[in-house]
Every structure is written in structure tokens, then in C-alpha cells.
């Protein structure tokens, strides 16, 4: 094994570097992975541009990347379910302790959780990376490395749709056709949603939404009144949607989500915007519209793998750009400019295939 571990390291706001780091040694319950495909997430770009997200502040150099797959090259002494050569998808959030959240199955809410590329925890945008074996999931032969890396954003969609209660016959509004809006669309349709409306400012992104199964696309114009948008959604569907999944974090979009959802329905907030937002809370309260939050995901990788392997969902069209690891800065710039949908970095020099 080549002992050169090229890594994408963020040193400070705006200071992104390619560096050679030591190859880590896995502990008894860990595996060492030769990384293959790593997607760039909006949060990676946000850390690069701003040095922080909310209370998570960069205070020392950090390896970026958390949408990832790779091949096992070394196995810890206590690991039983994986062997060298296995292809795996990585769940980036690993609980550090058996607290009440872990016990209740909501380990994503554990305050001490390890999470790739969230300060101070290093991510996996590198050639070699070690991870808890229990949070590495073997990929079936018919699921590619890129699909394995896309399980992370797909998991956000699964968790959002579960929190929303999407089921057979649900009508759904999705605000925002970025990567998370699109995976929410894919999952909602797979879970039985009968009609899905997707809104966005970008006609190109709405075109992708249509290709991925959206029944209606609604172009939002800047400055458009939320109540008017909500009315347009109801006109398209013939009634207000049961569920709205808000993926932008924009204040006006959250307002639209509440106004648009039918009485007794559910609004799920996935997008993160400013800490304080002015929203029509009384409107939601008197119509018994439930507002639910989403923080990452939990218990989603087995379902995502089953969905991909069975062909129930297709995430392949989401990858619009590919770069070798050596061109990471260019790849980040492409993502920052909002070009395409998902930018994928290829970390294995000898295998640049999807």
C-alpha cells in the first residue's frame, strides 16, 4: 500500500489545501479504507467560505468530506462483519457514548457524536481514512461506489420523509431543488407519494426535478409573496398538500411552507438558514399544522442500500461533475458557483470509475 495519504485540509476560512498526511492505523473496532468516491456537500463549501456553521467553528485544520465510499484495506482485530476488499458506504456520524439518545435509537441527537468534517472532527476527503466498522455498510455488487457515496444525502431525504410521515397517496410540496430537495423528491416518490410539487428559483434545477419524477415544477420569482406561492401550489395539486419539506432555509420559503400545507398537515424543516426567522406561527397553530425539525439522519443506511440495490430509487443522474482528488480546489469552486447538482471527487488514482 502506498504510504501517501493526500488529504483536502481546511486551515482557516478561505484557506483550502491539498496535503500529505500519515496513513492512520485502525483500532480494534475500526477499519482502514482506501477512499474511492467523496461528494462535496454545501456544508463543506460553507466551512471553506465562512469557517463555521452555527455553533460549529473551525479552530484548527480539518479534513473535509462526509459523503463517502471506499474499499476496506485493513481490519481491526475485533471486526467480524467486514474483510479486506469489501466495498462499503460510510455513515459519517458515530456516537461516542451509550447515552439516552443512542438507547432510544435517535443517536443523531447525541451531543457528543463524532461527525466527519464537523469541527473538530476530521472528514474523509483523502486517500486513506479509518472509521468505526459498525458504521461502514457493505455495498451489494450492483451498487456503485458513487451510489454508495450518495447514500449520505439520500439519507437526509429518507429521514425527512420519515419525519414527515410520507406514505401511499401523500401529496407533497418540496421547497428547493438542490441536492437535498431532489433526494427528498426521489424518496417521497419511492415511499408512495402520489403527487409532488417542487419549487425553485432555477429553471435548470426544476428540469432535473422533472426528470427525477416531480409531477409539477413551480418557478419562484424573487420577491414573490409567500401566500401567493402557496395559492399556486394548491392550484397545481387541486388541493393543499398534506406535507411540505422545506429544503432552502430561506425565511420566505419557510413562510410559504406553512401557508401552503393543508390543515392538520406536516411541515418538515430541512434547510438551515439564519437562527431567527419570522414565520406565521399562529397560522400553523390554529390549523394544527405540525412543524418538525430534521438533524441529519439515523438508521437510514440499510434502507438506502435496499432502495438502491432493488432499483426503487435512481440517484445516478445527481452526479453532474467528477474530479480527481488532485483537483479538489477546482471541484470546490465548481460547487460554490452552483454549477450542476453533485460534484464527486475520485480519491483512488487507479480507479476513477463511478
Automatic annotation (TrEMBL):
Gene Ontology BP annotations: sorbitol catabolic process
Keyword match Oxidoreductase: yes
Keyword Metal-binding attributed: yes
Localization (cell): Cell projection, Cilium, Flagellum
CDD domains tied to this protein: sorbitol_DH (cd05285)
Keywords noted in UniProt: Cell projection, Cilium, Flagellum, Metal-binding, NAD, Oxidoreductase, Zinc
GO cellular component: motile cilium
Enoyl reductase (ER) domain ranges (all copies): 14-345
Highest taxon above the source species: Eukaryota
A GO molecular-function annotation: L-iditol 2-dehydrogenase (NAD+) activity
Primary localisation category: other
Listed cofactors: Zn(2+)
InterPro entries recorded: ADH-like_C, ADH-like_N, ADH_Zn_CS, ER, GroES-like_sf, NAD(P)-bd_dom_sf, SDH-like
Family: Belongs to the zinc-containing alcohol dehydrogenase family.
PANTHER family on file: SORBITOL DEHYDROGENASE (PTHR43161)
Name of this chain's protein: Sorbitol dehydrogenase
Species classification: Eukaryota, Metazoa, Chordata, Craniata, Vertebrata
Amino acid at each position: 500500500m502506498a504510504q501517501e495519504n493526500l488529504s483536502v485540509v481546511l486551515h482557516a476560512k478561505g484557506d483550502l489545501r491539498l496535503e500529505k498526511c500519515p496513513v492512520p492505523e485502525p483500532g480494534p473496532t475500526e477499519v482502514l479504507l482506501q477512499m474511492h468516491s467523496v461528494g462535496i456537500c454545501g456544508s463543506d463549501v460553507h466551512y471553506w467560505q465562512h469557517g463555521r456553521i452555527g455553533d460549529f467553528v473551525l479552530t484548527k485544520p480539518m479534513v473535509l468530506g462526509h459523503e463517502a465510499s471506499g474499499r476496506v484495506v485493513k481490519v481491526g482485530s475485533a471486526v467480524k462483519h467486514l474483510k479486506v476488499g469489501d466495498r462499503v458506504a460510510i455513515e459519517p456520524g458515530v456516537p461516542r457514548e451509550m447515552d439516552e439518545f443512542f438507547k432510544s435509537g435517535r443517536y443523531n441527537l447525541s451531543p457528543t457524536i463524532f461527525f466527519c468534517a464537523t469541527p473538530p472532527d476530521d472528514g474523509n476527503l483523502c486517500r486513506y481514512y479509518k472509521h468505526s466498522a459498525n458504521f461502514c455498510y457493505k455495498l451489494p455488487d450492483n451498487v456503485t461506489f458513487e451510489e454508495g457515496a450518495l447514500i449520505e444525502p439520500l439519507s437526509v431525504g429518507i429521514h425527512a420523509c420519515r419525519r414527515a410521515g410520507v406514505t401511499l397517496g401523500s401529496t407533497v410540496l418540496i421547497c428547493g431543488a438542490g441536492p437535498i430537495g431532489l433526494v427528498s423528491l426521489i424518496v417521497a416518490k419511492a415511499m408512495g407519494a402520489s403527487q409532488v410539487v417542487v419549487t425553485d428559483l432555477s429553471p435548470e434545477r426544476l428540469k432535473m426535478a422533472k426528470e427525477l419524477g416531480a409531477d409539477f415544477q413551480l418557478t419562484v420569482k424573487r420577491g414573490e409573496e409567500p401566500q401567493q406561492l402557496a395559492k399556486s401550489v394548491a392550484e397545481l395539486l387541486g388541493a393543499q398538500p398534506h406535507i411540505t419539506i422545506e429544503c432552502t432555509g430561506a425565511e420566505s420559503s419557510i413562510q410559504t411552507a406553512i401557508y401552503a400545507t393543508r390543515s392538520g398537515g406536516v411541515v418538515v424543516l430541512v434547510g438551515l438558514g439564519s437562527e431567527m426567522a419570522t414565520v406565521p406561527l399562529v397560522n400553523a397553530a390554529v390549523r394544527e399544522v405540525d412543524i418538525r425539525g430534521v438533524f441529519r439522519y439515523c438508521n437510514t443506511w440499510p434502507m438506502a442500500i435496499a432502495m438502491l440495490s432493488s432499483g426503487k430509487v435512481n440517484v445516478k443522474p445527481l452526479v453532474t461533475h467528477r474530479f480527481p482528488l488532485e483537483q479538489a480546489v477546482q471541484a470546490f469552486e465548481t460547487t460554490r458557483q452552483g454549477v450542476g447538482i453533485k460534484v464527486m471527487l475520485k480519491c483512488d488514482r487507479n480507479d476513477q470509475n463511478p
